[in-house]
Amino acid sequence: MRISTKGRLATTTALATIGLIAGMIWWANQEVEDASGRRRQTTELTRGLTELRLVTFEYMLHRHERPRQQEREVTERLARLIDASPFSGAGQREVLDHLREHSAAAHRLFEELAATPGADGANTADAESTRRFEAQLSSRLLILQQESLADAFRLTDFSAERINAAQQRVVIVILAGLALIALTTGGAAWLINRKVLAPIKRLEEATREVAAGNWNYKLDLAGDDEIADMSRNFDAMTHSLRTSFAQIERSNQELAALNQEIEAFSYSVSHDLRGPLRSMDGFSLALLEDYGDKLDDEAKDSLQRIRAASQRMGRLIDELLGLSRVTRAELKLKPVNLSEIAREIADTLAQQQPPRAVQWQIEEGLMVHADKALLQIAMQNLLENAWKFTGKVDEPVIRVGATERDGKQEYFVADNGVGFDMVYADRLFGAFQRLHHESEFPGTGIGLAIVQRVIRRHEGTIRVEAKPGLGAAFFFQLREQSHG
Amino acid sequence: MGNTNNTNRVILLVEDNPDDATLTLRAFKRSHVANPIVVARDGIEALDFLFARGAHADRADAPLPTLVILDLKLPKLDGLGVLKALREDRRTRLLPVVILTSSKEEQDLIAGYSLGANSYVRKPVDFAEFVEAVKALGIYWLMMNQGPPDGSTS
Q1: Residue A203 domain-assigned?
Q2: Optimal mutation site among A260, A266, A272, A281, interface B, most CBs of chain B within 10 A
Q3: Most A CBs within 10 Å, among B17, B127, B130, to test the A interface
Q4: Which of A274, A282, A313 sits opposite B127 (nearest CB)?
C-alpha cells in the first residue's frame, strides 16, 4: 500500500472517530435535555399532588366550598398533566395508568365525601356512623393521594436514571473514541518510523556512500510505496553513474594509449627521420668538396638544391616535433609576466640582427595566468613573425599590449608590416599554410599553428586583423583564472 | 700528460648508421683530429671493446679510449644501456662520454644526463654545421678538457 493511501486512511479514521464523539455528545445533550423536561413535568405533578393533599385537608377541616372548587381544578390539571406526559416505557405507562386511576378514584372519594351530609345532624347514632364513614373515606382518600405521590416520585426517578444512563454512555463513547484516536496516532507514528524514517536513514547513508565514491552501493528496498520507488530510482542512478564512469575510464585509457602512441611516434620521428637527410646533405657536400673541380655549375647547383631541400626538410621535422611537443606538454599554470617575455624576445631579435631599427612598444606589467614555457613559444613565434614581416617597411613598429573586448582582457601583438588580405585569414592557423612566397619571407608555415595550439591549450581564443601593406595584429584571450 | 699523449689515445664512436659513421669520420678528418677512431656498430660491441671481452679480448691491457661518442638509438643495447653499464663499472665510471644523436627529446636529455653523460650534442642536418660541432667537440674534449687521471679509471 502507498504511504499516501495509509496516511489518508489514518486521517479518515481519526476524523470519523472525532465525528462519532461529537455525535454522541450531541445525542447525550438531547437525552439530558429531554430527561430534564420530564423531570420538570414530574415535579409539576408532584407539586399538584401535594396541593391536592392540602386542599383535601382544608376541605376536611372546614368543608368550605372554595377548597372543594380547588380540588376539582387541581384534579383536572393533574389529569391533563398525566395525559400530556411524554413517558413511553412500559413500566412508566403502568405508573401513569396507576396515577390516572388513583387520581380518578381519589376524585370520586372526594365527591363522595362532599356528598356526605354534615355530622351536625339530630341523630347521634346516625352522626356516629356518618363520622365513621367520613373517617373511612378520608383515610382511603389520603392513602390514595399518598400512593400517587409515591408514583410521582417514581417517575422523577425514571428521569434521573435516564440522565445518568446518557451521561454514562457518553463517557464510554468518549473513552472508546480517545482509545481509537490513540491507536490510530500510534499506528501512524509506527508506520512513519518503519516505512518512512528508517528507509530515509538508509537512503541518507547510501547518498553518503555514493558521494564518497562507492558507486557499487545498492539500496535494494523492497515494497510498492514511494520510498521503494525512490530506492529503485536511486539504484538506477548509481548504475548509470557506474556505467558512465566505466565508459569515461575506458575513453581515458584509450586516450592514454593514443597519447603513448603519439609519443612513441614523435620519438621515432625525432630519431629516425633526420638521419637520411643528414646523409643527403652530408654526401652532397662531400661531392661538392671532393669533386667540385670536376663538376659544372649546373651539377653544383643541383647538389646545392639537394642540400637546401634536406635542410628545409630537417627544419620542417623540427617544427612539427615542436608542434607536437606543445600539444603533449603538461600545462603548469602560474602567474606569468607577458611584458617581460616580450621584452626578452625583442632584445634577442635585436641582438641577432643589429642593423634593423625596430621601434618596440611593449606595455609594462601585463600579467597572465599561463604555462610560461608554452607562452614563451607562442610569443616567440608571434614576435618573430612581426619582426620578419616588418623587414621591408621604413619605420617598423611592433606593439605588444592589452585591450578589453566583451568584458574580457585581450592581449595583442601588432605590427605595421606587409600585412595580408583578410580573405586568407582562416587559412592562417593551419600547419604549413603560408601567405607569402618563401623567397620573399622565409618560413615553414608552422609558427601560427603552434601559437594557436598554445592558446587553445590555455582554453583561449586567437584572432587576427590585417590589411595588405598596413600590417597585422594578432589578438588572443586566455581562460580567466578561476578563483576557488 | 699533454696533448701529445691524448692524440695517441683512441676515440670510440658508437654508431650503427654507416652513413652517419662515415660522415662523422669525415667531419673528424676535416677538423684535423688526429686520434685513431674505432667504430662500434651496436651497444654490445661497444661494451666488448671497452671491457676487452669477446672479439676484443686481446685489448685486456690496452688503455681506455680518451672519449666515447655515443649514439642513443642502437641495435641490441641502446646508448642509454651502454652509458648505464659504463657508469656502473669502476673502470669506466669516470670515462668521458658525449652523446651525439638525432633527437633532442626532453626524455632523452634527462635520461642521458641522469645516467652520467658528460655532454649532449645533437647532430644537425646541415653537414657544415655538423663539421663545426665535431670540430668544437674535438677542441674541447681532446685539447682543452683535462681528463680523469688513469689511476682513477683502472
Answers
A1: no
A2: A281
A3: B127
A4: A282
Q: Are residues A307 and A433 in the same domain?
A: no
**Residue B1: per-residue pLDDT:** 40
List, for residues A89-108, the tens digit of each pLDDT value. Answer: 778 888 888 888 888 888 88
8 Å CB contact between A199 and A221: yes
**B105 and A270: CB-CB below 8 Å?**
yes
Q: Is 70 exceeded by the pLDDT of residue A119?
A: no
Contact present, A380 and A409 (Cβ < 8 Å): no
* Spatial distance between the Cα atoms of A277 and A314, rounded to a whole number of angstroms: 7
A264/A137 same-domain check: no
Contact B107 A267 (CB under 8 A): yes
d(CA B128, CA A78): 154
Task: Using CA atoms of A255, A261, A265, A267 in order, give the dihedral in degrees to the nearest 10.
Answer: 100
Whether the CB of A267 is below 8 Å from some CB of chain B: the reply is yes
- Identify which has the larger pLDDT, A169 or A293: A293
When CB atoms are compared, the residue of B19, B103, B124 closest to A270 is B103
Maximum mean pLDDT: which of A68-72, A107-111, A429-433, B14-18: B14-18
Look at residues A344, A322, A270 and name the one whose alpha carbon lies nearest to residue A453. Answer: A322
Q: Would an 8 Å CB–CB cutoff place B110 in contact with chain A?
A: no
- Give every CB contact of residue A387 below 8 A, 6+ residues apart in sequence: A349, A353, A356, A358, A398
pLDDT-wise least confident of A76-80, A147-151, A277-281, A479-483 = A479-483
Q: Is the pLDDT reported for residue A16 higher than 70? A: yes
Task: State whether A270 and B107 contact (CB < 8 Å).
Answer: no
> Is residue B149 in some structural domain?
no
Mean pLDDT, chain A, whole residue set: 85
Q: Which residues, 6+ apart, have CB-to-CB distance to A251 below 8 Å?
A: none
Residue A90 lies in a domain: yes
Whole domain around residue B90: which residue ranges?
3-142
The domain of A464 spans 332-484
**Distance, C-alpha A249 to centroid of its chain:** 32
With 90 as the cut, is the pLDDT of residue A320 above it? Answer: no
Domain stop point among A277, A303, A328: A328
Q: Which residues of B, range 22-51, sit inside 8 Å of A by Cβ?
A: 23, 26
User: For residue A327, is pLDDT > 90?
Assistant: no
**pLDDT tens sequence across A46-91:** 888 888 888 888 888 888 888 888 888 888 888 888 888 777 777 8
- Which residues in chain A are contacts of B72 at CB distance < 8 A? 271
The single residue listed with the C-alpha cell 617575455 is A341
Q: How far is A277 from chain B (nearest CA, A)?
A: 6
- Closest to B11 in 3D by CA, of B29, B75, B78: B29
**Number of structural domains chain A divides into:** 3
Can you give the pLDDT at residue B7? Answer: 63
